[in-house]
């Protein structure tokens, strides 16, 4: 008698029809911007779970496991409280749920700023334990040596400039950045430094439109805008914002659906069916139809 047992996962939600792996690569994304022009905009959305990654994957070039999961999934008030363990668990789930997009995982606050060595240890762990292709980190000129350190050691980096939510305590809120000429010049210098350090792409968040346009013209890497400019080389949104899961969203969010209403209506129908004992029905039971009370 065999002593080897194989778990029957045929009915598992986690493994739908297997797809051939034809994942986009970091060099393929980087190659989209030629002589300052990106003919095919980079499509990026955040994803935090395997199932959502499965649904988004074929439509996106990049999936970002953003530390916005702190607010979206965990109900935290800021991303400052997000831990590396959270990023590792959700990063691995998104990689398991995708086969086409480049998966990028945010380095959480406090895990990379102290030194290039600290950043390398964290980023290496993220790539090793999640299978993601790249990491994203927030910051400008001061983080440029760290970006160069990672890139020279084989870790692809996406930068993030402008409104950097991990710095909310220093910034004093989530208002748009780059309103004064001085602040705009500083953000442009930040973007230039991160691009020159070797980032293959860069999120520009929450800045005045002309600034995002200028950054996109100035830097060689692809810019991915969120509250930035249609001139950016690509766009990103937080998926739950885009799906209409929240009542309050920043001005730059376009809701492409009203999912919260669908969820609420489905929950109301379920509750009604349970209370009326019309769920489960005979077809939803195992064996002979159970006696109705
Ligand atoms: O954490 C996140 O989701 C992000 C996006 C808003 C770009 O950084």
Tag the structure with descriptive keywords.
293 residues, alpha/beta, TIM Barrel, 2 domains, eight-stranded parallel barrel, two-stranded antiparallel ribbon, 14% strand, binds 3-methyl-2-oxobutanoic acid
What structural category arises from helix and sheet content?
alpha/beta
Strand content: 5-15%
CATH topology of the largest domain: TIM Barrel
- Give the ligands present: 3-methyl-2-oxobutanoic acid
Cα shape: globular
Q: State the helix count.
A: 11
Strand order of the largest sheet: 3-4-5-6-7-8-9-10
Residue-averaged pLDDT, rounded? Answer: 94
Note down, in words, how this protein is organized:
- The chain has two domains: 4-257, Alpha-Beta Barrel (TIM Barrel), CATH 3.20.20.60; 265-293, no CATH class.
- The protein has helices at residues 26-30, 50-56, 69-72, 84-96, 116-130, 144-152, 168-171, 181-196, 209-218, 239-242, 259-275; strands at residues 33-34, 37-38, 42-46, 62-65, 102-106, 134-136, 157-162, 201-205, 222-226, 234-237.
- The strands form two sheets. The protein has an eight-stranded parallel barrel, surrounded by five helices. A two-stranded antiparallel sheet has the order 1-2.
- The protein has 293 residues and is α/β, with parallel strands linked by helices.
- Bound molecules: 3-methyl-2-oxobutanoic acid.
